[in-house]
TrEMBL record:
Gene3D superfamilies: 2,3-Dihydroxybiphenyl 1,2-Dioxygenase, domain 1
Protein name: Glyoxalase/fosfomycin resistance/dioxygenase domain-containing protein
A Pfam family that the UniProt record links to this protein: Glyoxalase
Organism: Streptomyces afghaniensis 772
Residues that span the membrane, as ranges: none
InterPro entries on file: Glyas_Bleomycin-R_OHBP_Dase, Glyas_Fos-R_dOase_dom, PhnB-like
Length: 137
């Protein structure tokens, strides 16, 4: 899979409604995974969206999720830029450069869904998410 760059939107509980709205606007295929789908079936946020992705016929990709408990979105920053793919070396290289001089909120490491994932804010205040599919690390 080639690496892709796309917006990743954050929501305070209405990600499902928002992503379904964007599907109505742009068309395409929408996949939604809840926190319950990833082993948190008893949690209060089990029905909230942990990850959603809309891929449109026009080639757009839009991702989004509900914020986990305790992680409210900051006004004016309901987005991140997402880098994803399966080229481990390429994506780790981007991570190293983006996180240098910035701050890391989630270290780039293996996650419960099996991929390597991290979140950082670069030195200019832009939030980034990096997901490496199928990585062995």
């Amino acid at each position: 899979m080639v690496s892709r760059l796309n917006p990743y939107l954050s929501f305070n509980g209405d990600a499902r409604q928002a992503l379904e709205f964007y599907k109505d606007v742009f068309g395409g295929t929408l996949s939604l995974n809840t926190y319950g789908d990833f082993g948190q079936a008893e949690a209060p946020n089990a029905d909230k969206i942990m990850h959603g992705m809309l891929e449109t016929p026009g080639g757009f990709t839009l991702m989004g999720a509900d914020n986990p408990p305790g992680m409210e979105s900051a006004p004016g920053q309901p987005f991140s830029v997402s880098l994803s793919g399966d080229d481990d070396a390429e994506l780790r290289g981007y991570w190293e450069k983006l996180s240098a001089g910035g701050s890391v909120s989630v270290p780039l490491e293996k996650q419960m869904w099996g991929d390597v994932f991290g979140m950082c804010t670069d030195r200019f205040g832009v939030p980034w998410m990096v997901n490496i599919s199928g990585s062995e690390s």
